[in-house]
Amino acid sequence: MQQATTILSVDTHGQGLTEITRDVAAWVRAQGMTEGLLTLFCRHTSASLIIQENAAPEVKTDILAYFARIAPEDRRAYAHDDEGPDDMPAHLRAILTGVHLSIPLIDGRLALGTWQGIYLFEHRRAPHRRSIALHMMGE
Q1: Could you list the pLDDT tens digit for every one of the 139 residues in the chain?
Q2: Longest CA–CA separation in the chain, Å
C-alpha cells in the first residue's frame, strides 16, 4: 500500500465553478498507482468541492442561479457579515455542497463518469487563491 499527498492551489475569478479535473488527474497519473482511493479536501469555509457535468455550460449557470436563490446575499437575513454581504451566504453554500470528495482509482484512472468533472465552487465574489489537499492511497 502506498500513500501520496499534495496541496493543489487554485486561483478563482470570484463566484463560480473552476474545473480542476485535469490538474487532479495529472497529479494522480504522476503517482503511478493503479488501484486506490483519492480524497480531496477544500481547506476553506467559503468555497467547496463538487462533481458535476462538464459538457453543457448552462449547467454551471443554473447551479449559480440556484444557490443565489437558496442562500441569497441579504444583509437583513444574517447576523454574520464581517467580510461583506457575500460572507454568510458563502458559508451556507459551502455547508450545502461540502468540502471533501472521494473518488476511486481503477486501472490507473479516476472512476469519473463520461460527463463528470471535479470543480472548486467559489462562493465569494472576489477572486481568491484556494488550497485543496489531495491524499491518495493505493497500489
Answers
A1: 999 999 999 999 999 999 999 999 999 999 999 999 999 999 999 999 999 999 999 999 999 999 999 999 998 999 998 899 999 999 999 999 999 999 999 999 999 999 999 999 999 999 999 999 999 999 9
A2: 52
Map grid coordinates 486506490 to a residue: 36
The identity of residue 119, as a single letter, is Y
Strand partners, 103: 38
Cα end-to-end span (Å), the chain: 5
In angstroms, rounded to a whole number, what is the distance separating the alpha carbons of residues 123 and 21? 19
SS3 sequence, the chain? Answer: CEEEEEEEEEECCCCEEEECHHHHHHHHHHHCCCCEEEEEEECCCCEEEEEEECCCHHHHHHHHHHHHHHCCCCHHHCCCCCCCCCHHHHHHHHHHHCCEEEEEEECCEECCCCCEEEEEEECCCCCCEEEEEEEEEEC
